[in-house]
């Protein structure tokens, strides 16, 4: 039992890192399967080689990006109701900046799998070699004399290792270029992640210890919120089914009203004057009145900015 508690504590403290690591490992495994089993460069023409190689290099990364957005709950929190006619007029400069900041954070989180795919695919060099063998730059670099035989052999090179020696070690050159690009993607991503983390820490409104507590609270609240959803959904469904089949009047079950759901679904921004660690925390402390007044204040400021 003690081991399970330590494991749960370790997972809670390093949830993000473990999640990104698992996603990266799964992406690497899938890429290796595609590269060794599915991918077969056509080696027929320059246009087919380029289209086929780029499709395997970029299309899976794009699909992983879309799946990441679809699986991210924060994305749906940002998106839900934004096209509603009742809500489109509630935009202000502050809410728009906060929305864009949250969207950028979500994009950074879901970009782990696509960048992993591109980096691993470039290190493997199969996709790049196939695509580059059909590019005009490769023809200019390897076949400066513009001979037809050289161009024909260049498109067939990914499928025939013997042709690499006849075209100035063309295959090794393309593989080296691909691996260099792969390391550039890895280094650039690592530097951007480090710089983003440093900037976020420098501009943070809370101390390091309080930020640790905030993360633990967010994880605990999310876990318990799912349990509460399950509990009340079970109670409500049992009551409705029982009343339907037994033809009885329903007993009242206390649930949040429509406005409470709206207030609890708002984006949360931390304030040093009011230490609320989530939107629900702020809703409980201040009530619906405080949040409604805050929303009206933001709308008034937005209206004043629009007045010439």
UniProtKB/TrEMBL annotation:
One of its GO terms (cellular component) is plasma membrane. GO terms for molecular function: monoatomic cation channel activity. It is a multi-pass membrane protein. GO terms for biological process: ATP export. The keyword Ion transport applies. InterPro entries: CALHM. The keyword Nucleotide-binding does not apply. Keywords: Ion channel, Ion transport, Membrane, Transmembrane, Transmembrane helix, Transport. It holds the Pfam family Ca_hom_mod. The chain crosses the membrane at residues 20-39, 51-71, 180-202. It is found in: Membrane. Belongs to the CALHM family. This is CAHM5 protein. The lineage of its organism: Eukaryota, Metazoa, Chordata, Craniata, Vertebrata.
